[in-house]
Automatic annotation (TrEMBL):
Domain Exonuclease: 357-520
Molecular function per GO: exonuclease activity; nucleic acid binding
Protein name: Ribonuclease H-like domain-containing protein
GO biological process, one term: negative regulation of gene expression
Compartments, as annotated in UniProt: Nucleus
Family per record: Belongs to the REXO1/REXO3 family.
High-level lineage: Eukaryota, Fungi, Dikarya, Basidiomycota, Agaricomycotina
Origin species: Crepidotus variabilis
Keywords on record: Exonuclease, Hydrolase, Nuclease, Nucleus
Positions of the UniProt region annotated as Disordered: 40-60, 78-112
Extent of Low complexity compositional bias: 50-60
GO CC terms in record: nucleus
Length: 529
């Protein structure tokens, strides 16, 4: 033990006579004064104390005031937490047990992630899925394998088609099923996939998920059931000012027409390259190096570049990718009138009960020594029934320079079957349509110009569905048909070209789609508050 320093000998023991310690640190002397501790509260001045006698064994110490008794702060006890009991009078149940509605099913997010075998990976929240995620992934793999078999002819050109449709199909089945019916629903879907015919193009009816196919079938049924008449089309007829704005000719030029059917031997400008040349027949024509595809704007490395659709080469390269003869076309009304005369359709009379109220028209053109000439005319009625489809001979003195087969679908062998010249074609058309007929087409002004017809009752799908950049830009018929109708047209090769009957039917269906969808939107907008 350590020896004490005696620092507390001048302080009386707080236990006094009851102290049981053998070596107490405090004093047990009766003469030991009470200590006076520091007090934070002001106290009165101390009274004078008598001086201790010299016989005391301890030296006198200054008497200080005692400290106030310490205050023991006892922390308050926390009240016991009792479970919350709900009563019928409670406005709502406790938050922890309150139901917030049924758990929503997770949504499949199509992702580019694939396994090594190409099976897409299901990207969903496992905690929110009512069906175990491994089960759904297994069913997705089964769907993917059957879509691969179904799309075996489409996958080389569309490698992600099977994976995308498998993801969509699995989500469709999951959204309509429960935990107990999910697996059986997938098996039924696989059985339906096995019965589908193998598609050869994206336009086939067997391409897509079950909901997509059903939706397309329903939309097509509605379109086919809608018969176009003057009553439901009258509000879509373009005004004369609108037609003139988009390049339609609204009057017959005053000069005599048809005086110069051919421009052979004259200086004209090539449509394919910005050169002037002497118009010649095919066997004498000079060769032209050109691009048949139109330029478009794209972004490469953060820089905007104009590229040709035909060869994917920049416009700045200049050099063409195709070789062929120089060709020309004319835009001026007087120049076209001098090649072949313009005229109005015959006026409507009460006796013309056999004339069509509505007709969709499309033409195919070829290049000649007289410019761009019509080589095929197709007309269908408002019920999409083909009523006219004829090839057109060139007029006397006019020779074909280029059949433009990539777009017209006409070659020399096919064109040799033509029996009527334009005058005969016009006479045949006069038996079908008159000035009261509503003509429907896409960029219909070009067809009317090559037929040399002036008509004011027109519905142009290029105007119904305008380009976002406005005039003079126009959306292509192929893009509109794919976007609005879910169909692919003009899929022929460079030797097959387009079909004027198919294009005319597409314009008719686009007008039907416009009536069914835009009319509904207008009605909803009118009744909205």
């Amino acid at each position: 033990m350590f020896s004490t320093l005696g620092l507390f000998r001048s302080l009386p023991c707080p236990h006094h006579d009851s102290c049981s310690l053998q070596n107490c640190l405090f004093s047990h002397s009766l003469n030991t004064p009470e200590p006076r501790l520091l007090n934070l509260v002001p106290t009165p001045a101390p009274r004078p104390q008598p001086v201790a006698s010299s016989s005391s064994s301890y030296p006198p110490v200054a008497r200080v005031q005692p400290l106030p008794k310490p205050i023991n702060i006892i922390p308050a006890k926390r009240p016991a937490i009792s479970p919350v009991k709900t009563t019928p009078a409670s406005p709502e149940p406790p938050r922890k047990v309150q139901k917030l509605g049924p758990t929503q099913k997770s949504t499949t997010v199509p992702a580019a992630a694939r396994t090594e075998s190409g099976v897409p990976i299901l990207r969903v929240n496992a905690a929110q899925s009512q069906v175990a995620l491994p089960v759904r992934q297994t069913m997705l793999k089964t769907l993917y394998e059957h879509f691969c078999v179904l799309y075996q002819q489409l996958l080389p050109a569309n490698p992600s088609l099977a994976a995308d449709h498998a993801l969509k199909q699995e989500e469709e089945v999951y959204s309509k099923s429960t935990k107990t019916t999910y697996r059986h629903a997938v098996i039924q879907c696989v059985a339906i996939l096995k019965r589908r015919p193998i598609p050869t193009s994206l336009n086939d009816s067997s391409v897509g998920t079950e909901d997509e196919i059903a939706s397309r079938a329903e939309a097509q049924k509605q379109i086919e059931c809608l018969r176009l008449t003057q009553d439901n089309l009258r509000h879509l007829i373009h005004t004369v000012d609108e037609l003139q704005k988009w390049g339609y000719f609204i009057d017959v030029p005053p000069e005599e027409g048809g005086t110069q059917p051919s421009a052979e031997g004259k200086i004209v400008r090539c449509d394919r390259c910005p050169q002037y040349y002497l118009a010649k027949r095919l066997e004498e024509a000079d060769q032209c190096i050109y691009h048949w595809g139109r330029p478009y704007m794209t972004r490469i490395g953060g820089e905007k570049i104009r590229m040709y659709r035909c060869c994917q080469r920049p416009v700045s390269d200049g050099e063409g990718c195709m070789h062929g003869p120089h060709v020309f076309s004319e835009k001026d009304a007087e120049a076209l009138h001098s090649r072949q005369a313009f005229s109005f359709l015959q006026p409507s009379t009460p006796d013309n009960s056999t004339k069509l109220d509505v007709a969709a028209m499309d033409c195919e053109m070829v290049y000649s020594t007289g410019g761009l000439r019509v080589a095929r005319v197709s007309v269908i009625d408002g019920a999409e029934k083909e009523v006219f489809d004829q090839l057109v001979q060139m007029d006397d003195g006019v020779e074909v320079i280029d059949y433009n087969t990539r777009f017209s679908g006409i070659n020399q062998e096919i064109h040799s079957q033509a029996t009527l010249k334009l005058a005969g074609i016009r006479s045949a058309l006069d038996q079908l349509i008159d000035s009261n007929t509503i003509l429907i087409g896409h960029a219909l002004d070009n067809d009317l110009k090559t037929l040399r017809i002036i008509h004011h009752r027109c519905i142009d799908t290029a105007l119904l569905f305008p380009h976002k950049a406005g005039s003079p830009y126009r959306r292509s018929l192929k893009d509109l048909t794919r976007e609005k109708l879910g169909k692919m047209i003009q899929t022929g090769s460079a030797t097959e070209g387009h079909s004027s009957v198919e294009d005319a039917a597409a314009t008719l269906d686009l007008v039907r789609w416009f009536i069914l969808n835009k009319a509904k939107s207008a009605i909803l907008a009118d009744v909205a508050p």
